Fold:
Amino acid sequence: MIYKATFRLFLANLLLYFLSIKAEIPAVIVFGDSSVDTGNNNELSTILKSNFQPYGRDFFGGRPTGRFSNGRLPSDFISEAFGLKPTVPPYLNPNYNITDFATGVCFASAGTGYDNATSDTLSVLPLWKEIEYYKQYQQQLRDYLGDEKANEIIQEAIYLLSMGTNDFLENYYVRPRRQLEFSVEEYQYFLIGIARDFVTDLYKLGARKLSLGGLPPMGCLPLERTTNIMFQRQCIEEYNQVAQEFNMKLEILVGQLNEELKELQLVLSNPYNILLEMIQKPFSFGFDHADVACCATGYVEMGYMCDQLNPFTCTDADKYIFWDAFHPTERTNNLVATHLMQKWGTKFL
Structure:
């Protein structure tokens, strides 16, 4: 518990820092996959959901919300750090409306990716649909606040984009179609092209302050390590190498778009190094477990395989880097968000 208190204090100090320099960020607007989905999949006909216990057991009120974690996600912590709400509401949840969304909204859908074929795998929102919902949101915002105020929010808001892992782990490496069409490097460039179009589309719709999320060391996810039994469940270095290469291509894209699009402030939020450091040196961060997750056995569980009927879920998630076999714990999300904010937070002020 001492680590939870310490990092809550650190986040509070970070919040005070941003407020002290008069940060004027009116909203946080989120696109992506399960790393930032705050509950949109609850409203979809998909098996990829987490709106049941033990998910959310360390969230406010101990309730599951559809977040793939025991608590909050990085986007929630970033919203709070900018002096906004401590949680970002999901756009598809009928319990929220434009009054809630005016200061932050999430269009992300767990299981999606840049590639439409990725979202088709589990019947979740494709990236183009997230954009369509964002267009609806813009109109609702204008109806609610008027054009001038709405346009100000649209231009001054911070846009968080986090996706890509599913394109490789749930699509390219498990579905033969894409491997027949592309080499790994060709597929990376295919996704980069979609990322370029996505950022450009948001720019044309008024967005100016964007954070493009990089890939984590995806070969070190417990689910992937489980498949590496012959090598004592070590990280799959091929997957980590692909993640690093993709992040380098994203970094080049960020530089290109900042040059091409006037007034664009685009940054790369790369979680790779901080997460790998946690995994390689867990005790330095106050973790006891890096290769196995908290939920049940922690080797293969995700979604409905991580449920309240399983008696093996750990009692203290703060000791684990991963909550289920694919997703980090709230404490890990807090650390990653804090690290990323230190890297680029002031660039938007």
The two ends are 33 Å apart (CA to CA). The longest strand covers residues 28-32. The chain has 13 helices and five strands. The chain has one domain: 2-285+333-342.
